[in-house]
Amino acid sequence: MEKIKIQVILGSIRPDRFGDKPAHWILDEANKLEGVEATLIDLKESKLPTFASPGYPSMVKDGNYGNEIINAFAHKIAEADAYIIVTPEYNHGYPGSIKDALDSVYKEWNNKPVAFVGYGSALGARAVEQLRQVVVELQMAPIRNAVHIPSDVYGAVMKETAPANPALFAPIAEKATGMLTQLLWWAKALKAARTQ
User: 59: domain CATH number?
Assistant: First the structure.
């Protein structure tokens, strides 16, 4: 049976960022699931330009967005059956790097589920809630369960280099399991629906 492909999207592009630690942790947790192949998409490495498309990405039919970097990103995003966006919260919202990634392509996101790992102010909850609104417009299915990293875990993990000691995430392991279980269910259901 073909594996479900999950992409973990690391949203922070700042130097000395915290996000690489939970991104690697949730990537490892996803890869523990039977029938799953999870990979990391680091927006820092993707080097996407600031969104300034002359046309609407939703009107692109052939995967050619008029920019070599965006076309390569679109091709990569198209390979996945589901996504986990790891987002910080800055000023009650998510970073522009994630908005640029979401806005740059369109059909590659369609009819796929997405989950969220949030951290920062309010445990990233406000950033995640805003992202839920945006991904619906991209015809994605945001799942209910999310992982929000509490300050005690954040403090312990912050001192680590990525990948951090997975034992430090133990207090939120159950939440991760619940999120991944739901994401996998939706990924299987929507993958089957997309092939009909």
Answer: 3.40.50.360
Contact 146, 128 (CB under 8 A): yes
Q: Rounded CA gap, 131 and 44, in Å?
A: 19
Domain range enclosing 114: 4-194
Q: Which two structure tokens, joined as six digits, stand for 75? A: 């091709």
Backbone angles phi, psi at 4, to 5 degrees: -80, 125
Q: What is the pTM of this model?
A: 0.93
Residue 183 near residue 82 (C-beta atoms within 8 A):
yes
Q: How far apart are CA 109 and CA 112, in angstroms?
A: 6
pLDDT in tens, 133-154: 999 999 999 999 999 999 999 9
pLDDT tens by residue, 7-17:
999 999 999 89
Give the pair of three-digit tokens for residue 189: 């259901």
* Total of domains in the chain: 1
Q: Nearest to residue 171, comparing CAs of 137, 112, 123?
A: 123
pLDDT digits (tens, 9 = 90+) for 157-194: 998 888 999 999 999 999 999 999 999 999 999 999 99
Whether omega for the bond prior to residue 163 falls within 30 degrees of 0, making it cis, is: yes
